[in-house]
Amino acid sequence: MTTTEAAPAPQLDAQGRKLLFTEARTANSFSDTKVADAQLDAIWELAKWAPSSMNSQPLRVTWIRSSEGKERVARHLMEPNRAKTLSAPVVALLAYEPNFAEHFTTTFPERAEMYSGFFASLPPEHVDAAARYNAAVQTGVFILAIRAQGLAAGPMTGFDPVGMDAEFFAQTGWRSHAVVNIGHPGANAWFDRLPRVPDATAVSWA
């Protein structure tokens, strides 16, 4: 009996790994270099392919570029997060849609009725938890998509979600999930690299 070795799968090269992972940092200040609309479109073009349970895709993005819009965001942030948000060329307000099951006719048409019925049978808090979790998975990919465009991301969760939702999502019912500042790094943008949890602590085999 002979075995056939599979052809090597394509891999991200060393420079790509540095850009997305090993040398990527969270920016704490931003330059005044503009971020083009085409760059934002390119970010979403990558981020929209993130995995989600049953292809539910609950993540929603609101781009905010104007000074007025950033002020509206900043008033709901914890104090240490306000200045960096006001200085960012673009802010992405990430939310999740609790009523994501309504979109299964688009996202999973072959099983739309089954999946919609499944979520309709669950308690609202379980549906909300599913939306929040899957949006979190999508958010991780969203941050990688920002880095892939050569931009710096400053994700934050230190804000008043009730106030943020009333400010931006009173009509849609979306629920704010994270704020991500986007731009080119400014002066003293990086803290010193902090240690990672040891592999022996974080990784196990079963």
From TrEMBL:
Source organism superkingdom: Bacteria
Gene3D superfamilies in UniProt: NADH Oxidase
Pfam families assigned: Nitroreductase (PF00881)
InterPro entries registered for this protein in UniProt: Nitroreductase, Nitroreductase-like, Nitroreductase_HadB/RutE
Gene Ontology terms, MF aspect: oxidoreductase activity
Boundaries of every Nitroreductase domain copy: 25-183
UniProt-listed NCBIfam families: PRK05365.1
Protein name: 3-hydroxypropanoate dehydrogenase
Upper classification of the organism: Bacteria, Bacillati, Actinomycetota, Actinomycetes, Geodermatophilales
